[in-house]
Design brief:
The complex is a heterodimer of chains A (154) and B (339). Chain A is an all-alpha fold and 154 residues long. Chain A contains 8 helices and no strands. Chain B has helices at residues 26-30, 51-70, 90-99, 112-125, 140-147, 203-222, 238-251, 263-266, 282-298, 316-320; strands spanning 3-4, 8-10, 16-24, 39-40, 79-84, 103-105, 131-138, 163-164, 167-174, 183-188, 231-234, 260-262, 279-280, 304-312, 327-335. In chain B, helix 2 crosses helix 3 (90-99) and helix 6 (203-222) packs parallel to helix 7 (238-251). Classes of the chains: A mainly alpha (154), B alpha/beta (339). The interface between A and B is large, with 40 and 35 residues.
């Protein structure tokens, strides 16, 4: 068996021929359907809080997110959310339910290592980078907004 | 001299494969080879409190079954060669504590089954053991945690992904045995081959060159040809890696055709849920070889087979650091003479 850079380049080409392409189109459609469906359910919950619990347009988002997170954690615990994720891809990963799933999954997984170092220490294993980069980019965007606004004032 | 060619051991005494023990999880039991396993567990926890403990239990059970079938007590086992996929090969270490036999731990990733079998045969052949045990185990959920994400995490896997087999296989090798039992004739120890595949979701394509290298080396060293074998089986290349290995062998002038199979393809039905391109894991080659293939040998459907277990020697850290995947494959030839 040949090794070396030429053999690697040849093999890469050969492997690419046989590796099936990711089904991008169907993934996008599925993500759109499931992601949209989750948001639609969220919208219903939102309206429900406005109609029956005297919430306003502005603050109904808080209990809505709490309910969605609760549902996602339950589905994770019942072993349903990972199956949904395999089918829906980004559709179930991007909404807040995906974030809840990543935390609950890590918490369940590391329960056997104890509450402190296991659940507590590992819970943010997957969600940590979302929080870090979410905060960093929110800060950057806020800076840009501030700069644009103060320029516009002059 | 028992070393023939460059990498092949020819065992003059042809040690006997006295008995095997094969245990599978729920998904493996529902697969097409379920009836060839000694024991199938319908619960992936196997009554244990963690998946790690479940994996250990599978391992111990496979060893117990093999010893029981051969009617050999554990204190008659002179050496155990074993390994698994977990950090510090804890499954093997802890199970060896239970079994209380002289133990040598191995890490060959999914090539461990044949690495252990080759070493066990060599030890018996050289007279350092009367009975040598080779065993390995893997569990889907422990491997997910070790190499990928938490099991309940809803990440999407590409079609090239493979499904780690939950199960364990053990083989007992002995100096003497009844004539109708299979015997180990050769073992070819593979070199580490790396043709630059980096994605941990493309293990089959990464391992195919190692498998092709070891198989072609086996034929060169022994002077045997594919016609001398009824079946040549790889460990866990799965559907994509299998095609690539066949193509690489053809480039070397070795045509295997229908004789060329893969345990990762055999172990699951492609219609089963989330098996992707096929099975993988230490147990994949072990359960198919020691369960299914051995039964076929015993039924007389096969006379001589070459099993080439393939291992991807990566760690989560090495792949996150952008390194390619070094792979190794070890082949063992098993023969059952029909007289």
């Amino acid at each position: 068996m040949k090794q070396g850079p030429q053999a690697k380049a040849d093999y890469k080409k050969m492997a690419q021929k046989h590796v099936p392409k990711k089904p991008v189109l169907s993934n996008v459609i599925r993500a759109f359907l499931v992601g949209g469906l989750i948001c639609l359910i969220g919208q219903f919950i939102n309206q429900f809080f406005i109609a029956f619990f005297n919430f306003t347009d502005k603050n109904a988002g808080n209990p809505t997110v709490a309910v969605l997170i609760f549902i996602a954690v339950l589905l994770t615990g019942f072993g349903v959310y990972d199956r949904l994720g395999q089918w829906a891809g980004a559709g179930s990963a991007v909404p807040v339910t995906g974030f809840a799933n990543s935390m609950a999954a890590a918490a369940i997984e590391h329960r056997s290592e104890g509450l402190i170092l296991g659940v507590g220490g590992q819970m943010f294993k997957l969600a940590g980078s979302v929080i870090v980069y979410g905060t960093v980019f929110a800060f950057l965007i806020a800076l840009i907004k501030y700069a644009v606004q103060s320029l516009g004032m002059q | 001299m028992p070393l023939i060619g460059k990498q092949t051991w020819q065992f003059p005494s042809q040690p006997y494969l006295l008995a095997t023990g094969v245990v599978g999880g729920p998904k493996e039991g529902q697969g097409p080879l379920g009836q060839d396993f000694d024991n199938i567990h319908s619960d992936s926890y196997i009554g244990q409190e963690s998946w790690e403990k479940a994996e250990r239990r599978l391992f111990e059970e496979a060893c117990e079954i093999a010893l029981q079938k051969a009617n050999v007590q554990s204190d008659q086992v002179d050496v155990l060669y074993a390994g698994d996929l977990l950090n510090q090969i804890v499954t093997s270490n802890f199970a060896a504590r239970t079994l209380s036999v002289p133990f040598l731990g191995l890490f060959g990733a999914c090539s461990t089954s044949m690495e252990g079998l080759a070493l066990a045969a060599m030890t018996v052949d050289a007279g350092y053991a009367t009975h040598a045990l080779a065993a390995t185990a893997s569990h889907n959920s422990t491997a997910e945690r070790q190499f990928r994400y938490p099991t309940e995490y809803g990440g999407q896997k590409p079609p090239t992904a493979q499904c780690t087999v939950t199960g364990a296989g053990a083989a007992l090798i002995g100096v003497n045995g009844p004539g109708h039992l299979p015997r180990i004739t050769h073992a070819t120890i593979g070199k580490v081959v790396d043709l630059g595949i980096k994605s941990p979701f493309e293990m089959g394509p990464a391992m195919a060159p190692a498998a092709a290298d070891t198989i072609s080396r086996h034929f060169k060293d022994t002077g045997l040809t594919p016609e001398d074998y009824d079946l040549i089986v790889t460990g866990d290349l799965a559907r994509i890696g299998h095609v690539l290995a066949a193509e690489l062998l053809e480039q070397e002038g070795i045509y295997l055709g229908d004789k060329f199979k893969d345990c990762g393809i055999l172990v699951y039905d492609p219609d089963q849920e989330e098996v992707f391109s096929g099975g993988s894991g230490c147990a994949c080659c072990a359960v198919v070889s020691y369960g299914h293939l051995l039964k076929r040998l015993m039924r007389g459907e096969l006379e001589r087979i070459l099993i080439c277990a393939t291992g991807a020697l990566l760690s989560p850290t090495s792949s996150q650091q952008g390194e390619s995947i070094p792979c190794v494959a070890h082949a063992v030839a098993i023969e059952r003479r029909l007289s």
